[in-house]
Amino acid sequence: MTVDPATTATEVPAPPAPKPRPGIVALLTFDGFLCALLSVFFLGLYIGTVPFPITIVLAGAANMLLVLAMRAETGSTSRAAWPLLAWIVGFVLCLAGGPGGDQLLVADWRTLLLPVGALAPAGLHLFVARMAALTSAVRQPAPRP
Fold first, then answer.
1. Do residues 129 and 73 lie in contact, with contact meaning Cβ atoms separated by under 8 Å?
2. Residue 12 confidence (pLDDT) above 70
3. What is the mean pLDDT of residues 106-134?
4. Measured CA distances, 83 to 9, 12, 31, 37, 69 (Å)
5. Bridge partners, residue 46, by sequence
6. Rg (CA), the chain
7. Which is nearest to 90 in space by CA: 68, 112, 69, 115?
8. Do 110 and 53 form a contact (C-beta atoms < 8 A)?
9. In the predicted model, is pLDDT for residue 43 greater than 90?
10. How confident is the model at residue 108 (pLDDT cuts 50, 70, 90)?
11. Which contacts qualify for 102-109: CB closer than 8 Å, 24 or more apart?
């Protein structure tokens, strides 16, 4: 029996993934920290006499973009969480009192909603991506010798 070489399936090894650029990774992580500071600074916005916490939505969108960019750069879901960890560090630093007892965040509903609205969309995306990676690794058959 003769097999046509044009119709046989040959496995071509995938090209190696490019290494992440350390400067881009550091910049995206710092941007997560900066996003926390800016979202806290502008959390107290008002339109007239009505609170207008648009920074909660903007922080959620910015964190999602940072996570997507970090995942595209590194190819890893664990390293894609670094901007979120930097955001948490920035938020905790803003919770601490400054010199003279100054506080950036006060006991308000907006302060409670900020971490949820800023971290939940990107965190959910990372969770779903990680679960998809784990289940696809389990479903793949073992290579035959």
1. no
2. no
3. 90
4. 42, 35, 7, 13, 10
5. 51
6. 22
7. 115
8. yes
9. no
10. confident
11. 104/40, 104/41, 105/40, 105/43
For residues 75 and 20, what is the distance between their CA atoms, to the nearest angstrom? 8
- Provide, for the chain, the percentages of residues in helix, strand and coil under a 3-state DSSP scheme, each rounded to the nearest 5: 65, 5, 35
Q: What phi, psi does 9 have (nearest 5°)?
A: -85, 120
CA nearest 60: which of 82, 87, 86? 87
Q: Give the type of residue at 62.
A: A
27-42 average pLDDT score: 93
Q: How far apart are CA 134 and CA 145, in angstroms?
A: 24
| Residue 75 confidence (pLDDT) above 90 | no
pTM higher than 0.85, yes or no?
A: no
pLDDT band for position 143 (50/70/90)?
low
Angle at which helices 54-74 and 109-139 pack, to 10 degrees?
Answer: 30
Q: What is the pLDDT of residue 1?
A: 58
CA distance 100 to 131: 46
**Beta carbons of 119 and 66 less than 8 angstroms apart:** no
Residue 108 neighbours by CB under 8 Å, 6+ apart: none
Backbone angles phi and psi of 15, in degrees to 5: -65, 150
